[in-house]
Amino acid sequence: QYVNPNNPLAHELGTAEEIWAQTEGKITALVAGAGTGGTITGLARGIRKHNKDVKIIAADPHGSILALPASLNEDFKDQPYKVEGIGYDFIPDVLDQQGVDTWFKTDDRTSFEYSRKLIREEGLLVGGSSGSAMAACVKACTELNLTEDDVVVVVLPDSIRSYLSKFVDDDWLAANDLLPPTPPLSAPTTPVAKAEDGKSKDGYGDATIRDLRLKPVTTISADSPCGDAIETMREKGFDQLPVSAGTGSRLVGLVTLGNLLSYLSSGRATGHSRVSDVMFDFRKINEVVTSTQDISIKTPEERKKAATSSETESHPQRRQFVEITKDTKLSALSRFFEWNSAAIVTEKTSEKGGYKAVAVVTKVDLLTWLVKSSKKDGSN
């Protein structure tokens, strides 16, 4: 498709006409990713047959060289990227770069965050390059001063089908350091809405993790073979295991089924490899947050702003270990679960800066508590 003239022609005669008809000719801007170049080139030609003033905006991932001016590609030159289907290290013959009014560079973390948001909030089962297109759209609305009077069309070209074990999976995101910024555990900046009886409408009230009555934790040593971790998970029905240091109880990491599968299926590890070779190593995390008030991103709006501003940074965001104890409020735990599948409940040890795992809490535990709580409220 890189050299097939019918590639852009199909979009010029088909997709562009469909968009023009469905927007009743009111379209003022169009956003799409650039891969082979057929979609963006054909759409630009087709739409401009009707209106030459429509802005054509393209998304190009960091590490690709398709964007113009070429200086846009310098900051992340030759760096790999995980988003599939867009961007290349050569210019396809069918791509008309000059036909694009504005190019926006996009990064993996923000692209996947928008893809997951479209899936979660809009029910659109899209893939990663659709998230890139949305990231470019958000930038365009801000930088090109688009308003609510503009009709902006974003092309979402891929589906979730091929990505269930990739960006849809929290473990995969964590393994590739692509999890979005940690949501706030601190109290919301605006008061929580109250029901007529004065209780919190969020369903948690003042309940803490202690109210979940969790079972004692099962851990595995960092020196144990991966085969032992897999067998323990199989026997217990666990998806993850806290990892302790040697024969001690000091928490040093977390091993998950998803990460084990990724390592073993790719040949990077075997059943005889040490757990420490495949675990999420907490010892490598830059910062330990011991107070929920220390997390700087307070609201969804601020979190969104921080994620957008981080796209231009050449260094990865600082990763944080958030201390969660039995006294952590369930409302805070719920916000933590927005981007994490499980939480390790810890206690401090006598060792300086040391923690030991006392329980693992999952979304199922939180849901179980909510169901039981609602039954109690209904019987009163």
Q: Helices, strands, pairings?
A:
Layout: H1 6-22, E1 29-33, H2 38-48, E2 55-61, E3 102-106, H3 108-122, H4 128-143, E4 152-154, H5 170-175, E5 220-221, H6 226-236, E6 240-244, E7 251-256, H7 257-265, E8 280-281, E9 287-289, H8 300-309, E10 320-322, H9 330-336, E11 342-348, E12 355-362, H10 363-379
Parallel strand pairs: 1-2, 1-4, 2-3, 5-6, 9-10
Antiparallel strand pairs: 6-7, 7-8, 11-12
Helix pairs in contact: 1-2, 3-4
Structure summarized in a few sentences:
With 380 residues, this protein is of the alpha/beta class. It has helices spanning 6-22, 38-48, 108-122, 128-143, 170-175, 226-236, 257-265, 300-309, 330-336, 363-379; strands at 29-33, 55-61, 102-106, 152-154, 220-221, 240-244, 251-256, 280-281, 287-289, 320-322, 342-348, 355-362.
Protein architecture, described:
InterPro entries: CBS_dom (IPR000644), CBS_dom_sf (IPR046342), Cys_Synth/Cystath_Beta-Synth (IPR050214), TrpB-like_PALP (IPR001926), TrpB-like_PALP_sf (IPR036052). This is Cystathionine beta-synthase. Residues 181-202, 293-320 are annotated as: Disordered. With 380 residues, the protein is α/β, with parallel strands linked by helices. It folds into two domains: 6-163, 3-Layer(aba) Sandwich (Rossmann fold), CATH 3.40.50; 172-379, Roll (CBS-domain), CATH 3.10.580.10. It is 31% helix and 15% strand. The chain has ten helices and twelve strands. The strands form four sheets. A four-stranded parallel β-sheet has the order 3-2-1-4, sandwiched between helices. Strands 5-6-7-8 form a four-stranded mixed β-sheet. A two-stranded parallel sheet has the order 9-10. Helix 2 (38-48) links the parallel strand 1 and strand 2. Helix 1 crosses helix 2 and helix 3 (108-122) crosses helix 4. The longest helix has 17 residues, at 6-22. It is elongated, with a radius of gyration of 24 Å. Mean pLDDT is 84; it is low at 187-193 and 291-318.
